[in-house]
Amino acid sequence: MNRPTMQIRLAILMTVTCAIVGCGGGAAVKTTVRYRPSNPDAIGGDAAVAAATPDGAAVPGDAAASGIGSFVGTVVVQGEFAPLPAKYAKGAAPKDTEVCGVEQIPDDSVVVNDGKLANVFIYLAKAPKSAPAAPTEPIIFDQKSCIFKPHALVVQTKQPVKILNSDAALHNTHTYPSRNSSFNQGVKPNDTVGVDLIYTRAESEPFQVGCDVHPWMIAYHLPVDHPYAAVSGPDGKFEIKDLPAGKHEFKVWHEKGKLLQKSLVVTIKPNEPTEMEIPVPASKLAQ
After folding, report:
1. In terms of Cα–Cα distance, which of 170, 213, 163 is closest to 193?
2. Count of CB atoms situated within 10 Å of the CB of 174
3. What residue ranges define each of the domains in the chain, with the CATH number in brackets?
4. CA distance 141 to 150
5. Which residues, in sequence order, are CB contacts of 141 under 8 Å at separation 6+?
6. What is the tens place of the pLDDT at every residue in 239-252?
7. What distance in Å separates the CA atoms of residue 181 and residue 183, rounded to the nearest whole number?
8. What's the 3-state SS for the chain?
9. 165 vs 56, which has greater pLDDT?
């Protein structure tokens, strides 16, 4: 190799080296790496990502800690509400009286006990990014004394609903969903094995379930694609467990009042219950 060629190559090598490590006392090139978690919502979103270093690059240890909490509360009626009379008195059922008339058939469209409202659906409007898989254990939907039990049911999509018949009379279960296929199947008397029903799509609101044999039989189902939903009990209380900490939007729905709240914003605290009282004007239940 001749001398001019060697000098040219040496000059090129020195230029590249200076570009990498800095020469002549100048500032070295700085590489910035910005940390962004796979699920920023779970640890405080962009605010947590941008909180750490002067140039805005967050450090994993500085991100807000994620956690799990629960949403518990009571649905209360504001104002006076007179109890609804029974649909049929004991022994007065117009069909299959020997089975359906063993007790009175209540009007479960509005159930108020000591000012607390039952059968209210409280559920996340939208599934989180990583919701747990649906349980494989079936949820029971029974028919006793010609009454659907429970009256209001939350079920996850792909979770089996086991429809039983504890009556000595033929029933059928007929669903009226918006997004799922309608289901209409008879359930023979005293069927303890049951008929399986599986919802494949989440619904935006609960829908009615009926029995064509006994038209006074009415219930409501809500399939959701996450476990973050509940129905208030006879005492108006509800609990939604294992919620990711942070801000969530819930829907509140009742069969008489319909969509009571479209966007109930709740900030779930980590590692403890977040409590709330949900008021419902009595006027909404008289519609």
Report:
1. 163
2. 17
3. 3-62 (no CATH), 68-286 (2.60.40.420)
4. 6
5. 148, 149, 150, 153, 161, 162, 163, 164, 173, 197, 219
6. 999 999 999 999 99
7. 6
8. CCHHHHHHHHHHHHHHHHHHHCCCCCCCCCCCCCCCCCCHHHHCHHHHHCCCCCCCCCCHHHCCCCCEEEEEEEEEEECCCCCCCCCECCCCCCCCHHHHCCCCECCCCCCEECCEECCCEEEECCCCCCCCCCCCCCEEEEEECCEEECCEEEEECCCCEEEEECCCCCEEEEECCCCCCCCEEEECCCEEEEEEECCCCCCCCCEEEECCCCCCCEEEEEEECCCCEEECCCCCEEEEEEEECEEEEEEEEECCCEEEEEEEEEEECCCCEEEEEEEEEHHHHHC
9. 165
What is the DSSP pairing of strand 68-78 with strand 237-244?
A: antiparallel
Angle (nearest 5°) at CA 149 between 146 and 155: 140
Strand-strand pairing, 121-124 and 258-268: unpaired
pLDDT average, residue stretch 187-194: 97
Q: β-strands 161-165, 152-156: how paired?
A: unpaired
Mean pLDDT, residues 258-280:
96
User: Do 220 and 209 meet the contact criterion of CB atoms below 8 Å apart?
Assistant: yes
Out of 86-90, 131-135, 169-173, 271-275, which region has the weakest mean confidence (pLDDT)? 131-135
Residue 137 has pLDDT above 90, yes or no: yes
Q: How far is CA 201 from CA 30, 66, 121, 131, 220, in A?
A: 50, 29, 18, 15, 16
β-partners of residue 239 are 72
pTM of the model: 0.77
Contacts of 206 (CB under 8 A, 6+ apart): 121, 152, 220, 221, 222, 253, 255
Residue 259: CB atoms within 10 Å: 12
| pLDDT, average across residues 98-103 | 96
